[in-house]
Amino acid sequence: MTAPRPRTSTREPEELGRRLAAWLDHRLPGAKVTGTSVPGSNGMSSETLLFDVEHPSAPVRACALRLAADPAAYTVFPAYDMPRQHRVMALAAEHTDLPVPRVLWLEEDPAPLGAPFFVMARAEGRVPPDVMPYTYEGNWLHSATDAERAELQEESISLLARLHDQFPAKEAAFLLPPGTGSPLRRHVDAQRAYYAWVVDGLARSPLLERAFDRLEELWPADEGDPVLNWGDARIGNVVYDGFRPAAVLDWEMAACAPREVDLGWTVYLHRFFQDLTVGFGQPGLPDFLRREDLERRYAELTGHTPRDMEFHTLYAALRHGIVMLRIAYRQAYFGEVEVPADPDGLILHHASLAAMVQGTYW
């Protein structure tokens, strides 16, 4: 028997819709909010509310609202900087040709909806599902032809290549975490601080701590220049029109870091779903988003050959493991699961992460 799907919010969509309408009336007097809905893929970090605006001066009709996590919901991350995410999206739209949704209003006052939020234009299309993952049978991407998936793969790796090449690196410096050292060192130090926050007062994870130690052993001799990282760089954060990107979403993990931090995340997050699918007796999509194909094509598109990918895929798996541990402790907080004697068992991909630490995964 599988664990229940974790709750994603303690908020009521109908109440949010009423409060949103009252807020918008101050921005566009007489505006009507219609068609309010919460997408089925709503996550456990920032929440999304979809709605339409009826007003002659509305900049767009179809909107999406990103709302910082409910502080009462045992948040996945310690902070939700909506102005930061709004700024990243605006800059990415300004400096690149990526289909970044147009950002509209930013509200930093938590009073109207209970937390800061921003509103952006809504893109129409379809998103590869996370639950059940697109690697499982029964969804549009799994049912596509090999040629259609190849088109989606090509278009998706192109997003990452163009972002890294087109965005002026100096414009991403505001994303550097506080501290000293190189951008990569500060990125990893920030993850250490996040892990410490996750396990504060709770059982620590020996596996995650071994992974941090292994990172130090594999540390790149040449870290590479930093670029704007999308952060949560994966196809599940893209709206596709057919098999081409129509909108690039979820910039809350954006960073100033080497290219391989983003690429490693793209490679590993697909492997996470693929390994999960194989573990449940299905073949998944073994020829899709393969590490060697993504690295080769990224090099062809950018002229930059990815380096130290064992480090970067391990780092991605470690970062994902910290998130998984926090989500599991969150489930325990809401009485959805019990914490086992070995906290490493709470990390869904503990076997593959252990293999990466041992150097036997790839």
Distance between the termini: 30 Å
Query: How much beta, percentage-wise?
Result: 5-15%
Number of helices: 9
Instruction: State the low-pLDDT regions, or none.
Output: 1-7
Mean pLDDT across all amino acids: 94
The number of distinct β-strands equals 9
Rg (CA only): 20 Å
Overall spatial form: globular
Class based on secondary structure composition and strand pairing:
alpha+beta
Q: Percentage of helical residues?
A: 40-55%
Largest sheet: 5 strands, antiparallel
**Lateral arrangement of strands in the main beta sheet:** 1-2-3-5-4
Secondary-structure element order, as H and E?
HEEEHEEHHHEEEEHHHH
Protein name: Phosphotransferase family protein
Organism: Streptomyces racemochromogenes
Domain Aminoglycoside phosphotransferase: 81-275
InterPro entries: ACAD10_11_N, AGP_Transferase, Aminoglycoside_PTrfase, Kinase-like_dom_sf
List the helices and strands and how they pair.
Elements: H1 13-27, E1 32-37, E2 47-54, E3 62-67, H2 82-95, E4 103-107, E5 117-121, H3 146-166, H4 183-198, H5 206-217, E6 226-229, E7 238-241, E8 244-248, E9 255-258, H6 259-279, H7 291-302, H8 309-333, H9 350-358
Antiparallel strand pairs: 1-2, 2-3, 3-5, 4-5, 6-9, 7-8
Q: Would you summarize the structure shown here?
A:
The protein is an alpha+beta fold and 362 residues long. It contains nine helices and nine strands. Helix 5 packs antiparallel against helix 8, helix 6 packs across helix 8 and helix 8 packs antiparallel against helix 9.
